[in-house]
Specification:
By secondary structure, this protein is mainly α. It is 54% helix and 6% strand. The chain contains six helices and two strands. It has a two-stranded antiparallel sheet with strand order 1-2. The two termini are 29 Å apart. The relative contact order is 0.17.
């Protein structure tokens, strides 16, 4: 199973924003530099996170991005869906009638993974970072 690099950047960016001050916005340059990604590319990812309602953009000299939802409410699955969408990872291309047995196994595996990602909060990871 493979997610795009955009998801990787989004997860790391959200971790940085959860660990940052909830009031003071973080600039795109500050978010991009530690990840070794261009601010332009990261801006496109941040736009998706804004559209998903997880963060907000603050304009002005001290502008940047900050959380727009409670950090305790943001799950890994929320972030992944904001970047990747929520289409199934596996779609059978063959016609088997009502149910493809292979599709059923893949769907069950995906549901288990989504359940884990839905219960894993990005704030829990940030807390581990601050303790370490």
């Amino acid at each position: 199973m493979r997610f795009t690099k955009a998801t990787n950047y989004a997860l790391h960016t959200m971790l940085a924003l959860v660990a940052a001050s909830p009031v003071k916005p973080v600039g795109v340059q500050q978010l991009a530099e530690p990840q070794g990604v261009s601010p332009t590319y990261l801006s496109k990812i941040l736009t998706r996170l804004v559209k998903a309602g997880m963060i907000e953009s603050v304009s002005g000299a001290n502008g940047g991005y900050r959380l727009s939802r409670k950090k305790e409410d943001i799950t890994f699955l929320d972030i992944i869906h904001a970047i990747e969408g929520n289409a199934s990872l596996f779609e059978c291309d063959f016609f088997h009638g009502d149910e493809c047995l292979i599709q059923a196994v893949m769907k069950e595996a995906e549901e288990k993974m989504e359940s884990h990602l839905k219960t894993t909060k990005i704030a829990d990871l940030a807390q581990k970072l601050s303790q370490g």
